Amino acid sequence: MQAPLLQHFVIIRPDQFFSDLGQNYLSDLLEFLRNKLPRLLVILIGAWILIRAMGVIAHRVVRSAERHSTRPAHLGQVKTLTGVVRATGIAIVGVLATLEVLPLLGFNLGPLLTSAGVAGVAIGLAAQTIVKDCLNGFLILVEDQYNVGDVIKVAGLTGTVEEMSLRKTILRDGDGTLYTIPNSQVTTVANKTRDFSLATINVSVDFSANPEEVMKILRDTALGVRNDPEFSDLFLADPTLLGVDSIQGSQVIYPVQLRTKANKQWAPMRELQKRIRLALEEHNILPGDAYRVYAIDGPSSPAEVKTSSGPQTGAAPTAIKPGKS
């Protein structure tokens, strides 16, 4: 009775087991090397070539725009679009290459894609902000609200756009701080370098100075900077003097406006302020000071002291002397 029962059991020797295992492994390896490895190499090499080609094309487009573009805004737009297209293309190529490689490595994509469809609904509900980021980023590009290199103010932050994609905008402010702003938070955009920049210098001059004389000095000084070969190419129009803007205590404010190329107002502003300082000193005109004390003593009025900062004792070193205007 036991002999037939023992016939159902097969005794495998260890050397035979490892021999069969080695043969199966070798057979699978040869099949992988013969059929799957060439396809795997073709997919990886093709993906690398496509990614490399997109990078080269983007670089050449930017270089061509730098050589032929006459407007900084156009150059910034080209850099922005090439960066976004390159990043999107790399992502698409990467996803397609992954879907082609996984089956070659033994992964069954059927259950994976089915699970992804179910999980996609849950992920979509949880990732509404990301979808909103991408949609808003697409609208920013289509409407050309700002580009790489523009100085903007968004979400309460001001800086230069260093990089932007469909999902985020990266700003660098004046002290080097880097801000990453999701595009869904970009509701109002203040572009400070679109087409031109308008800088206003408020020159404060003492109340005793003759306004006509001050206006002439400021006009000549501003035109001197405008016609200087070092700065003339930065201006888009002659400086504008707006006259007396306000009187605050003993100081009179004279605004001077400079219209320059986009984000090129800083050097002319600094040079003009330096020359105004020297010109006022040359003509013995005091700068405005809300706390200056005047001692006025004329033939028809008694001497008196006026101040805007409360009681003071003694004569101020910059007080107007009797008989001088």
Automatic annotation (TrEMBL):
Transmembrane intervals: 40-62, 83-106
Chief site of localization: membrane
Subcellular location as annotated: Cell membrane
Region called Disordered, residue ranges: 300-325
Domain of life: Bacteria
Keyword Magnesium annotated: no
Domain Mechanosensitive ion channel MscS intervals: 129-193
Domain spans labelled Mechanosensitive ion channel transmembrane helices 2/3: 92-128
GO CC terms: plasma membrane
Keywords: Cell membrane, Membrane, Transmembrane, Transmembrane helix
Membrane association type: Multi-pass membrane protein
InterPro entries given in the database record: LSM_dom_sf, MS_channel_1st, MscS_beta-dom_sf, MscS_channel_2nd, MscS_channel_C_sf, MscS_channel_TM-2, YbiO_bact
Molecular function via GO: mechanosensitive monoatomic ion channel activity
Family: Belongs to the MscS (TC 1.A.23) family.
Protein name (database record): Transporter, MscS family
The species this protein was found in: Acidobacterium capsulatum (strain ATCC 51196 / DSM 11244 / BCRC 80197 / JCM 7670 / NBRC 15755 / NCIMB 13165 / 161)
Biological classification of the source: Bacteria, Pseudomonadati, Acidobacteriota, Terriglobia, Terriglobales
